[in-house]
Amino acid sequence: MKRVFATLCLLAAFSLVFTACQESIEEAPVELEEASQAIKDQLAEAGYNPEDVFKWNYNGVDGYLVEYDIFFTEAEISDLKLDDKVPNTEHYRTTNLVTGTPRTIKVGIDPAFGSSAVTALNNTIAMYNAENINLTFQLTSVTVSGKGKKKTYNTDADILITAFRERPRRGFITLGIAAGFPTNGGDPADGFGLNTYWIDNLGPSVEEIKGVMAHEIGHTIGFRHTDYATRVSCGSNTNEGSAGVGAIYIPGTPTGSDASSWMQACGPATTFNGNDVTALEFLY
């Protein structure tokens, strides 16, 4: 399976929403190298905004950050095609799903995260386990050896939460980056990253961190953004395309806007709404 990364990005008027952190927000952003015009042209042909495309490395994989919210490798960009049909906001899944259900999925978190993230993870696990699905999530331990590029995680986690650090740019901040979707073998993606700059400097609540974790876990078990074809929740009108992993409509979910869904591209929602529950129960 191709390694496709899906991210959750928060679009906010920081001067209004994060007034207590105004000084931090005004720090100069990290200088990123822009993508070549050839890469931008390919993205534009696939329906993406080519204006904000930067070279990016996530967990050792080189690629590009697109619209501050999506990670693609160069090979994946070459495979992108604009969908002929641009549907309304609905719930979508990838071609691959987690198999072998009923199944327990172990989730671990880098011990470098503070208590708010750990509490949020426990709440996220409880949120999923409260639903009538054939996936049970369970917290598992994580220890770390080495430092920097030689850092090694010792864990039996199926989904591992690691850290990255990125400051806001042009009103956007990336909150989480999921390491793909379920594998061809029916396992969940192996984890996701959380932005420690957001947690350390912008003071999100435990509920907000929980919302991001729930969203990224949604990707790891096969959910696409509900507004993948328009990204309307991010204030844009672009199509993420099938991205080589599929975007299959989930029956019983709405054909209109679903702004409170936990799988909206920009958010985050902190609970499952009724349509989310329908989608979860249909798949699992």
Give a quick set of tags describing it.
single chain, 284 residues, alpha+beta, nine-stranded mixed β-sheet, two-stranded antiparallel sheet, 8 helices, 13 strands
Shape: globular
Trace the largest sheet across and list its strands.
2-3-4-1-11-12-10-6-7
Class by SSE composition:
alpha+beta
Number of strands: 13
Distance between the termini: 21 Å
The H/E string reads: EHHHEEEHEEHEEEEEEHHEH
What is the radius of gyration? 18 Å
Question: What is the topological layout?
Answer:
Layout: E1 5-11, H1 14-17, H2 22-25, H3 37-45, E2 53-58, E3 61-66, E4 70-72, H4 74-79, E5 92-93, E6 103-109, H5 115-129, E7 135-139, E8 143-145, E9 152-154, E10 159-164, E11 172-178, E12 191-195, H6 196-201, H7 206-220, E13 248-249, H8 274-283
Parallel strand pairs: 6-7, 6-10, 10-12
Antiparallel strand pairs: 1-4, 1-11, 2-3, 3-4, 5-13, 8-9, 11-12
Helix pairs in contact: 5-7
